[in-house]
Design brief:
The chain is mostly helical. The protein is about 70% helix and about 0% strand. The chain contains five helices and no strands.
Length: about 170
């Protein structure tokens, strides 16, 4: 997505504290794509892992582009972590009942971010088109005014020529 810019490490750490993220914000490297020890124990003991809900579109509409960008990358990492864990559990034949519901929440949130950003892009394009239309109307009006001035100058020149000719004729008769 072209409208997204790169995240600095500090901005990512701030975004990692979102309600979607259930991992510690300071993990680095490959560990980011797997459950931490606490969550792993909960999964193995078949205890429910506390997770947040998916983001609502009206909540996302209130966020800035920068916040949406941060949230997008947090959700992207969360989705990658869940998919890695699902694959690991499927190889180990472990119960993975919790992962699909979390994955669904992440996917729904990502889809809603795309919807909100799409709405903003459409509104922006519409404003640009209206601005261009207004500019072109202003340009047309300016051009019409310039043409009217040129016509007025031509009329004056013709009138001046007519007056000169009449004056010359009158002098010739006298």
């Amino acid at each position: 997505m072209a409208y997204l810019t790169r995240l600095s490490a500090r901005a990512f750490r701030a975004a990692a504290c979102s309600p979607q993220c259930t991992r510690p914000a300071m993990t680095r490297g490959v560990e980011e794509f797997f459950f931490d020890g606490h969550q792993q124990k909960q999964v193995e003991e078949k205890k429910p892992v506390k997770t947040g809900r998916s983001w609502q579109a009206n909540e996302l509409r209130l966020k800035s582009y920068e916040d949406l960008h941060k949230l997008w990358y947090v959700l992207l990492k969360e989705r990658a972590m869940l998919q890695s864990e699902r694959e690991r559990l499927s190889v180990a034949d472990a119960k993975q009942a919790l992962i699909p519901s979390r994955l669904k929440k992440v996917r729904i949130s990502m889809a809603r971010i795309k919807t909100v950003v799409g709405e903003r892009i459409r509104v922006h394009k519409k404003e640009l088109e209206q601005g261009e239309a207004a500019m072109s109307e202003a340009e047309i009006k300016k051009k019409e005014e310039e043409e009217e001035k040129e016509r007025e100058e031509e009329r004056r020149e013709r009138m001046d020529d007519w007056v000169r000719r009449r004056t010359i004729r009158a002098r010739q008769r006298a």
